[in-house]
UniProtKB/TrEMBL annotation:
Residues 4-32 form the Protein YjdM N-terminal domain. This is Protein PhnA. The lineage of its organism: Bacteria, Bacillati, Bacillota, Clostridia, Eubacteriales. It comes from Heliophilum fasciatum. Belongs to the YjdM family. Residues 45-111 form the Protein YjdM C-terminal domain.
Amino acid sequence: MSGLPNCPKCKSEYTYEDGDLLICPECSYEWTVGAEAEKDQEIVVKDANGNVLHDGDSVSVIKDLKVKGSSSALKMGTKVKNIRLVEGDHNIDCYIDGFGAMKLKSEFVKKI
């Protein structure tokens, strides 16, 4: 065969190259060879104590945090349930009762 990988979306074996891209003629999905390997790598996020966090974990805030655009602060000990990990500087996406949707830095929370 051609030695090209199968389509990651529909698993078709009829992929072909077009410059740097690999293309599936059956589902029209386009990808690069290195992109799939990068997607498989999981984000590793650690809390203030060095514990690894996962999606769906519950955490507690370890210090008072000023909230931009709000007159009140997020108090130490506030519990945050069902976090979601994202890439970037503020790597925790969550919903906090009384504040709404918010992004937090993992260095200011500890796993419960």
